[in-house]
Amino acid sequence: MATQTQPARRTDVLALWGGILFSFLFTGVIWLAGQRLQTVPHWPDTGASWYYWRLVDTTTIARATAWGFYLLNQIAAWALIYYAQTRVKKFAPGLQKINVIALAGTAFFILLHFAQTHLFYGGLAEDVSIWSSQVSVIIMLVLILLMENPRRGLFWGVKAPLGRDIVGFVRRNHGYIFAWATIYTFWYHPMENTSGHLIGFLYMFFLMLQGALLYTRVHTNRVWTVTLEVMVAVHGTLVAVMQGNGMWPMFFFGFAGIFVITQMHGLGLPKWAKWLILGVFIALTVVVYNGQWVRLNEIIRIPLIEYLAVFLFAGLIGGGLWIARRVGGQGSKGAGERGTLSPAP
Which of 160, 238, 302, 321 can bridge 154 by disulfide, Cβ–Cβ 3.0-4.6 Å? Predict the structure, then answer.
């Protein structure tokens, strides 16, 4: 009788932990196998706008496989999201058939990218700027701030005056946008084993895992989704440390500042915990910037960009919805408030 009263194990939670374990293990595989890529010739590093991990003489097969596999991955992800929105439509306490397909597909494309790197090396970086990869992730992070505004607010729990139709539009379509940002960045980089690449691919694996768990309860687990948001601070800080340009505090305190201002307020923390986190943040700031106060403005650069971008995107989306209503008639009013893929990334 005791076993009958115990709650059944959530298959989506098991899949999440299994996916996290797979992500760490495969990151280890990239680290071990990356030694054989040391002989690949690269152009000399010329600065922040230059992406070093490109072929000196790219090949047609490198370009064709990078772009071809990327497009195959991208279209497959969008097709699964569309199918889920039009056929599945509702959350479940465990895995659904669409999740099994998505998880298997994610593992397949991770293995495919690994093989493509070691056979042909070239990624999307052969043809497009590093800024395109970075901007795609920034767009995703900004839209999460916008989308979560009704639940956790934007500034210390206070909600920004963003229209319901704007938030509804982002919630309904965020899966397509986040899939693009993640998969584009995933195929941009070859699977090198520098510290920046390793933490970056681990982050991409987590984001792809999140996408594959659509319409499950774990997809909206607040600790997990905030972890995905905060991981960009770890990645940005490690890359800056690796570059040795002394800019790591800007990334660490910039993204940590967004956590203090916005993200932690969606975790249900008591007030004393929030004030404690703020106190630790201020103390660390004083320790790091002591004696170099002229650089203190670094900590507001990233938050300023992201919060301004929230209102910029809100304005652009609101303007687009207004035009759509004017063109399509009043029958489309409130279109942005209809069903949503999920309230979280």
Answer: 160
In the chain, alpha helices (H)? 2-5, 11-33, 60-83, 97-120, 130-147, 149-152, 164-188, 195-212, 222-243, 248-261, 271-289, 298-328
- The pTM score is 0.89
Is the Cβ–Cβ distance between 130 and 49 less than 8 Å?
A: yes
Whole-number Å distance between alpha carbons of 278 and 168: 31
Instruction: Indicate if the pLDDT at residue 151 is higher than 90.
Output: yes
First to last CA, the chain: 39
Q: Which of 222, 280, 227 minimizes the C-alpha distance to 253?
A: 280
- CA 345/CA 178 separation, integer angstroms: 8
CA distance 281 to 230: 14
Give tens-digit pLDDT for 264-311.
Answer: 999 999 999 999 999 999 999 999 999 888 889 999 999 999 999 999
pLDDT for 165-221, tens place per residue?
999 999 999 999 999 999 999 999 999 999 889 999 999 999 999 999 999 999 999
| Structure token pair of residue 213 | 């768990």
Closest CA to 255 of 235, 273, 276, 230: 230
DSSP 3-state of 268: coil
Instruction: For Cα atoms 113, 116, 119, give the angle at the middle one, nearest 5 degrees.
Output: 150
Phi, psi of 162 (to 5 degrees): -105, 135
